[in-house]
Design goal:
HIT family, subunit A
Length: 138
């Protein structure tokens, strides 16, 4: 079986280093949905050494911060499931009280039509927020 996350998967690249990618993915009704994907094929966080765990979680939190700054959602959902694709990755999902599924997970049955929270140039805004956060940390 070929792993769809072992090579750069679909989505708009927001950040990359030698260990991970941060992607803005096209999830219908959920603009700002990002994935932080560990490049090496591992299944679980505890398969990584402590320094790599810290690096990955740092980028999950940086991504959350950038999404919050740019989109100002009511809530952020963080998830590292990997049941369908057992390759370590985190979902960073901006949630709004008027989205189709709130307060349920986005994979649940919709509860309403859902408002459109798309923003022009969203990828560029998120990329800029990530870079500003990177610069601020030195």
């Amino acid at each position: 079986m070929t792993c769809p996350l072992c090579t750069l998967p679909a989505g708009e690249l927001l950040y990359e280093d030698t260990q991970l990618w941060v992607l803005l993915v096209d999830e219908a009704g959920y603009p700002g949905f990002c994935r932080v994907i560990w490049k090496q094929h591992v299944r679980e966080m505890t398969d990584l050494p402590a320094s790599a765990q810290s690096h990955l979680l740092d980028w999950v939190l940086r991504t959350e911060s950038a999404v919050r700054q740019v989109m100002q959602p009511d809530k952020i959902n963080l998830a590292s499931l990997g049941n369908v694709v057992p390759h370590l990755h985190w979902h960073v999902i901006p949630r709004f009280e008027d989205d189709a599924h709130f307060p349920a997970p986005i994979w649940a049955q919709p509860q309403r039509a859902g408002a459109d929270h798309a923003q022009p140039q969203l990828a560029a805004q998120l990329r800029q927020a990530l870079q500003a956060g990177l610069a601020a940390r030195g």
